[in-house]
Amino acid sequence: MNHEQSRELYDRALSVMPGGVNSSVRAVRPYPFFVQKGDGGHVVDADGNRYIDYVMGYGPLLLGHDMPESVQSAVQQRAAEGPMYGAPTEVEVELAEFVARHVPSVEMTRFVNSGTEATVSAVRLARGYTGRDKIVVMQSGYHGAQESTLVEGEGDHTSPSSPGIPESFAEHTLTIPFNDREAAHDVFAEHGDDIAAVLTEPILGNYGIVHPVEGFHETLEQLCDDHGSLLVFDEVITGFRVGGLQCAQGKFDIDPDITTFGKIVGGGFPVGAIGGKSELIEQFTPAGSVFQSGTFSGHPVTMAAGLETLRYAAENDVYSHVNGLAERLRSGLQDILEDRAPEYTVVGTDSMFKVIFTREAPDSFEGHCEAGCTQRTDCPRYDHCPKNGHDVKRAETERWERLFWPAMKERGVFLTANQFESQFVCDAHTDEDIEETLEAYKAAL
Ligand code: PLP
Questions:
Q1: Cβ neighbours of residue 209 closer than 8 Å, sequence gap 6 or more
Q2: CATH annotation of 69-314
Q3: What is the mean pLDDT of the chain?
Q4: Which CATH number fits domain 4-66+317-357+395-444: 3.40.50.2000, 1.10.490.10, 3.30.930.10, 3.90.1150.10?
Q5: Using an 8 Å Cβ cutoff, are 275 and 106 in contact?
Q6: pTM for the structure as a whole
Q7: Does residue 305 contact residue 77 with C-beta atoms inside 8 Å?
Q8: Residue 68 and residue 127: Cα distance in Å, rounded?
Q9: Which residues sit with their C-beta closer than 6 Å to ligand 1?
Q10: Which residues carry this modification: N6-(pyridoxal phosphate)lysine (predicted)?
């Protein structure tokens, strides 16, 4: 493959943008390819090379790169009529109604412009509502580039995970391992009266893919109820992907107080949202007193793209298509691994998948998995599935950079540059794409 154009663009980018990119995960060694355009389930780079795309914009593109006619015309019409106004529009109401109709715990929604903005506002809302400062997050969970959740450490021994964040932010953030019910009980026993919220991804998608074990989310729900704390489900990745239109909370039958969304709900345009019971969401200004505002929030082009994308998914067999293809991919990969690299593990559910470089049994776990995929309790591979971020961390290896990223890319398959971020199957992928991908994995391995 020729990458001359990408290399040149990267050289130019390096002199005007830090690291040559606008989001850190896009920087790969020796240089990323620059995309010229998307095409269905594929992308074409600046040198004309074509790749089957499983990055899918890091999650927003449920339907792939070719927007269906209904999405395209709604977006074009909105853009043509003046992109935004600083006054409300009908399409915002329609999207909020759609979300309330389908997501079990949501009655009201405030739209913002990114997943980060959504989690920042959710934490402020929880603190404002409860009058408490502390939040609990999962070790190796990710909630965007926000001060309160960029922490490392265990329990109440936490510190900021990036320079530039005052220590005092981390003082209010407690961490527990995902899937550890005992740690959840312990943190509430010690700090229960000060905890405003527990913030968790339903499935760890940025350091994973890790599924909840049976009873874990229920334990968080109960502890929050008992202590007057709020359970915040960060469904930025899982929203409108895992569990279809009901999201992961519908699939796992959990009733969070607040849900954060991003990615798919904007149909490929910048978006975030905070949803929940009216009593809570109405704490936001101007209905309530927790300050929340944004020039671009509820942007008409984004709202139209999100609404038409979700309507399309509701009216077509999008979820059975993407989930079916992903299941074929996961089980095909499992067969290849069994044959060629039995020390590796396939993880994922619905339309998410990943190969991680470990098969060590987790040392931290008892219980049952709710994944309903290759990680079923009756699955012979079950013991090898990661149960928390620590299990995943043990799989860290430069093999990802050496083998999958370059080897798969050269075979025409675009995987995430970060070895722990989820990859996604989209509606535009085909049986042939899956076969070609499996062949590429086989050759790469
Ligand atoms: N929360 C989760 C679970 C995410 O996966 C992400 C981003 O990947 C975010 C929040 C932040 O979203 P954004 O990148 O749109 O700010």
A1: 203, 347, 348, 349, 352, 353, 354, 422
A2: 3.40.640.10
A3: 91
A4: 3.90.1150.10
A5: yes
A6: 0.93
A7: no
A8: 41
A9: 58, 114-116, 119, 142-144, 201, 205-206, 234, 236-237, 262, 272
A10: 263
